[in-house]
Design a protein that fits this description.
The chain has helices spanning 2-19, 27-42, 82-87, 108-122, 129-136, and strands at 46-53, 59-69, 76-80, 92-93, 98-102, 141-142. It is an alpha+beta fold.
């Protein structure tokens, strides 16, 4: 099963680099972003921006970022996970500045974060059943 996820990941990395030739995003970059996402989750520094909800309520535009403090001057800044989300199969919509998440009847912010964590676990980038479960239960703060 893990091999299937990793094959899909490699295919998505190739597609991402083909669609954005000016960005050389490789497996090391992806692993760096996964570590950043996990660390931001553990430190409760993830924020989610719900840009819009469709009239029918069946989809929403969500963007997830990390809030980080600069070691240089102490100011805070926001970093995105655009490359990582694209490789995981989410489609960034530049005009709407987020990812379209379809679904109704549940907290889609929670569902998206939960799915991302378990995708990382299936790729064997997060280990430990308790750790995975705990991370999945810490969704981003909605602003």
């Amino acid at each position: 099963m893990i091999n299937s996820y990793k094959k899909d990941l490699v295919k998505n990395l190739d597609k991402h680099n083909k669609d954005a030739p000016f960005i050389n995003y490789d497996m090391n970059g992806f692993k760096r972003d996964v570590k950043r996402y996990v660390k931001a989750t553990e430190q409760k520094r993830l924020i989610s921006i719900i840009r819009s909800v469709s009239k029918s309520g069946m989809s929403r535009i969500i963007d997830i970022h990390e809030m980080k403090k600069s070691s240089y001057n102490g100011n805070h800044y926001i970093r995105n996970f655009e490359n990582m989300f694209n490789v995981l199969g989410y489609k960034y919509l530049p005009g709407q500045r987020g990812y379209r998440i379809n679904g109704v009847g549940m907290d889609m912010n929670y569902h998206t974060h939960y799915s991302v964590i378990y995708n990382m676990a299936h790729l064997d980038m997060i280990r430990g059943k308790n750790r995975i479960g705990n991370l999945a239960q810490m969704p981003p703060v909605i602003i």
